[in-house]
Amino acid sequence: MSEFPKITAGGSLLIAWQLTDKRVVLVGGGVVAASRLVHLLCADALVTLIAPANNLSKEVTHRINEYAARITWKDALYAGPQDLEGADMVLTAIDDNEASIRIWEDAKALKIPVNVADVPPNCDFYFGSMIRRGPLQVMVSTGGKGPKLAAMLREKLEKALPPETEQAIDKVGKLRAKLRARAPGVGGKLGQERMQWMTGVCEVWSLEDLADLDEPAMDRLLDAGWENRRVPDYQTVLGTGVWWKTLQRQWKEDGVRWFAGGLLSGVLLFALKRRYIDQLNHSFRNYIIYNDTRILMLSMDWSLRTTLINSNFAHAVNRWQARASHSASFDMRGV
Ligand SMILES: C[C@@]1(CC(=O)O)C2=NC(=C\c3[nH]c(c(CCC(=O)O)c3CC(=O)O)Cc3[nH]c(c(CC(=O)O)c3CCC(=O)O)/C=C3\N/C(=C\2)[C@@H](CCC(=O)O)[C@]3(C)CC(=O)O)/[C@H]1CCC(=O)O
Ligand SMILES: NC(=O)c1ccc[n+]([C@@H]2O[C@H](COP(=O)([O-])OP(=O)(O)OC[C@H]3O[C@@H](n4cnc5c(N)ncnc54)[C@H](O)[C@@H]3O)[C@@H](O)[C@H]2O)c1
């Protein structure tokens, strides 16, 4: 058994190719070309699109207009190697096999990396199924074995990503830039310390904590943490503000349940009040005193109480009994 990880050969090299302002020639104007165009524009490439006007897909037409500054459109069929001059990458997505093979050969002669959609032997690199969440990009590749499965797995992974992923990455990016401003330079002891400290923050702070970082909190984290070469936790950096944050988070997570719970308790309380409290209230207010005995009368209305107090008691009780017999429950207690 080796202490080093076992190598699984036969895969692809998955890399994040930097295409900003590099020239990419894309041949074809159908739906596949449209999806290639999206990937290229997301990577800030400069695109030369070669495709005749008569078969342009709606999306490709839309992109040409939307990104006029980034896309140079040649309304023509692929003409030969001169079309590839100065390109850093070539992509084809056309329904003409022979033309595809010619483009592949021309690109090879010019040593330009090329992808011929759906023709694995004519690809220096394959596309994969992509997740894009702000700065986060995930590519699922099955090494050409099952593109549809790749797309389905991508959907599963997408659902598994925590919602604060994007923000957390953005905030870490800002924090790292601030850290570099305080401790500039490449390599050396300072570089080691910087990396150790950043690693510590990422390990100690949850994605949610990181996503919550604002400018002042970043400065406090750097003042208290980096300057002393230690990693304070979220609570320490936020101070008393942590209570407010916790409340906000719980509201975000559980707000709907809180609201429903509140509503339910309200309704329950209201019902209870009507059923018991009102009755009690009523009974305590509606007593009469007869021969020094306080007589409580439940569910007795005000008019009857007034009658009882103001008139002959026996007469009133008779009236009350008459009412009680077909309406309220009653109770008479000496208190
Ligand atoms: C991931 C994705 C990215 C993209 O292209 O942007 C992509 N194909 C996608 C969809 C897709 N492609 C096909 C189907 C039909 C169902 C099926 O066959 O499964 C579906 C499903 C659908 O359409 O839903 C047909 C197909 N594709 C290739 C062949 C040729 C062959 O296998 O020999 C054939 C058969 C043609 C035939 O039978 O005649 C070849 C390639 N397709 C690749 C990428 C590369 C390897 C990716 C990997 O390693 O997984 C590779 C090698 C080269 C390349 O094109 O770069 C995109 C999903 C985007 C998304 O939705 O997320
Ligand atoms: N990898 C994938 O995800 C995937 C999925 C489906 C299809 N495909 C393959 O990709 C290719 C394109 O698919 P599509 O659905 O976009 O096709 P499509 O028929 O919609 O479009 C083909 C485009 O290529 C253009 N074209 C044809 N010959 C040309 C040439 N010599 N020069 C310049 N432009 C030319 C046409 O004018 C048209 O705009 C097909 O070979 C298809 O099998 C790949």
From TrEMBL:
Q: Name one GO biological process term.
A: siroheme biosynthetic process
The EC number of this protein is: 1.3.1.76
Q: Which UniProt keywords apply?
A: NAD, Oxidoreductase, Porphyrin biosynthesis
Question: Do you know which Pfam families this protein is assigned to?
Answer: NAD_binding_7 (PF13241), Sirohm_synth_C (PF14823), Sirohm_synth_M (PF14824)
Does NAD appear among the keywords?
A: yes
Per its UniProt record, what SUPFAM superfamilies does this chain match?
A: NAD(P)-binding Rossmann-fold domains, Siroheme synthase middle domains-like
For this protein, the record's InterPro entries field holds: Met8-like, Met8_C, NAD(P)-bd_dom_sf, Sirohaem_synthase_central, Sirohaem_synthase_N
The pathway it acts in is: Porphyrin-containing compound metabolism; siroheme biosynthesis; sirohydrochlorin from precorrin-2: step 1/1
The Siroheme synthase central domain sits at 133-159
Q: Which residues form a coiled coil?
A: none
One MF term in the entry's GO annotations = precorrin-2 dehydrogenase activity
| Reaction catalysis annotation | precorrin-2 + NAD(+) = sirohydrochlorin + NADH + 2 H(+)
Concerning Gene3D superfamilies, the annotation shows: NAD(P)-binding Rossmann-like Domain (3.40.50.720), Siroheme synthase, domain 2 (3.30.160.110), Siroheme synthase, domain 3 (1.10.3280.10)
Q: What is this protein called?
A: precorrin-2 dehydrogenase
Q: Which organism is it from?
A: Serendipita indica (strain DSM 11827)
